[in-house]
């Protein structure tokens, strides 16, 4: 890579409910000229299998199929969540930001405590210390005081906590439209505008 850094994002998928959000995010990001580093936790794989009926092999095929379509602009690297030798584990590997989607309370807690135990929590730790944008699309309800305190801690450290709470003001007629709207809001945070995204004030 030359002197100017490409947009390079880490995407973490953990074992909270909301695999649909992760899949939608990847579908949209694949049409953008970005470099993606994808890490999926063990529980993340389990929940993807349960909610989207996708095994690890199916999901890798899905990513391969996205990579094969003509509109694909992105370059994607998949890392094992146990691989602490992966480039995204180090601050010397320049990254534009990280999105954890969905983000479990366990991973939130690991980030809040600074006790990174896997590649997802380590990469988030690095993103925070390097002062890059970190978006946590958390999902749990109701929230305990521990969850709320962890959210406060990470927000004070510079992360953006974006609970997966879809809006209804754009009259979504399907769960895919609800997911796309949430993803557009997440990508707004890293200055990526999703073409055609519904916005308040648009006609
Ligand atoms: C079907 C299913 C749904 C789950 N949903 C949530 C959830 O919405 N939020 C959450 O924090 N944990 C949820 N969990 C529990 C996490 O998967 C569990 O805490 C796991 O240890 C998270 O690990 P990870 O952060 O490494 O992915 C769910 C588990 C299963 C099996």
Keywords for this structure?
203 residues, alpha/beta, Rossmann fold, 6-stranded parallel β-sheet, 7 helices, 6 strands, 40% helix, globular, binds flavin mononucleotide
Layout of helices and strands:
Layout: E1 8-13, H1 19-29, E2 35-40, H2 42-52, H3 56-68, E3 75-80, E4 97-103, H4 105-113, H5 119-129, E5 134-138, H6 145-156, E6 160-161, H7 175-188
Parallel strand pairs: 1-2, 1-4, 2-3, 4-5, 5-6
Flavin mononucleotide binds at residues 14-17, 41, 43-44, 46-47, 50, 104-107, 139-140.
Tell me what you see in this structure.
- The protein is α/β, with parallel strands linked by helices and 203 residues long.
- It has a single domain, classed as Flavin prenyltransferase-like (Rossmann fold, 3-Layer(aba) Sandwich), CATH 3.40.50.1950.
- The chain is built from seven helices and six strands, in the order βαβααββααβαβα.
- The protein has a six-stranded parallel sheet with strand order 3-2-1-4-5-6, sandwiched between helices.
- β5, α6 and β6 form a beta-alpha-beta unit.
- It starts with 7 loop residues before the first strand and ends in a 15-residue tail after the last helix.
- The model has no long low-confidence stretch (mean pLDDT 91).
- The structure holds flavin mononucleotide.
- The site of flavin mononucleotide has 16 residues, from α2 and α4.
Offer a concise description of the structure:
This protein has helices spanning 19-29, 42-52, 56-68, 105-113, 119-129, 145-156, 175-188, and strands at residues 8-13, 35-40, 75-80, 97-103, 134-138, 160-161. It has 203 residues and is of the alpha/beta class.
């Amino acid at each position: 890579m030359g002197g100017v850094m490409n947009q390079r994002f880490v995407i973490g998928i953990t074992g909270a409910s909301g695999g649909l959000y992760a899949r939608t995010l990847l579908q949209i990001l694949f049409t953008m000229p970005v470099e993606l580093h994808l890490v999926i936790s063990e529980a993340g794989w389990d929940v993807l299998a349960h909610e989207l009926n996708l095994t690890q092999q199916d999901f890798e095929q899905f990513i391969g199929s996205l990579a094969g379509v003509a509109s694909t602009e992105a370059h994607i690297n998949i890392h094992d969540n146990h691989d602490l030798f992966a480039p995204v584990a180090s601050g010397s590997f320049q990254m534009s930001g990280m999105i954890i989607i969905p983000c479990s309370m366990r991973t939130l807690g690991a980030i809040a405590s600074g006790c990174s135990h896997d590649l997802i929590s380590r990469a988030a730790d690095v993103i925070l210390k390097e002062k890059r944008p970190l978006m946590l699309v958390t999902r749990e309800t109701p929230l305990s005081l521990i969850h709320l305190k962890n959210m406060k801690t990470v927000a004070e450290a510079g992360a953006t906590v974006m609970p997966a709470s879809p809006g209804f003001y754009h009259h979504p007629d399907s769960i895919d439209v609800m997911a796309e709207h949430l993803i557009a809001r997440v990508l707004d945070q890293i200055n990526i505008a999703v073409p055609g995204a519904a916005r308040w004030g648009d006609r």
